[in-house]
């Protein structure tokens, strides 16, 4: 059972309810225009099939969260990434290859002219701790740092790095990220989100306003989401524990006291004593 007023946008149901419905595509257009450069603004979008089959049986099938096309025929892949995964950047590059290949025209008359492709990744994790920027726009550039090809762009949003509070929100971009990060904590509509588009999002995302069948679907999806997060947390704790133990073993060999090792690694004195006895 949902225990917040608004549905979680990081669940599959929540993300597609907010951004993936034809009747409310103005929400997705507004969001994309807030994260894309000024020269790439969108006026119209059409949703397309999110499943893309490879050209041969040995390639992997790609299934996007959202796949759209604007009035110019340009392609937009919108992906929600809930946790870091191996070869994450490689995956986004691989995904971009499908809307490029599908533009090929049969016959000898095609001159290889392509429409632009954009991959927008909304990430609920940090992939670069050393870079304080959280809004990354990536293009193909040459050795002089000049854009070599302007029809392929990748946008990465590291949401956990966005820490502005309600009284610090200035732009539409700020408000979108604040909403995504905090919507499940809202007990009422924040006054700062006064624009029509945000009111519309909150109206759509209100749990009690969903049809009973959608509530049941969301409840199941939310349970899977929480189980997934719990699994990740457990894995992270085990990894941290293992690293602390390895560090403690090395420090013990240097002759530090059990108390010093415990303080340095975060392990308990009893845990360090056991390691000391077993070494």
Automatic annotation (TrEMBL):
InterPro entries named among the record's database cross-references: RpnA
Domain of life: Bacteria
Protein name: Rpn family recombination-promoting nuclease/putative transposase
Pfam families per record: PDDEXK_2 (PF12784)
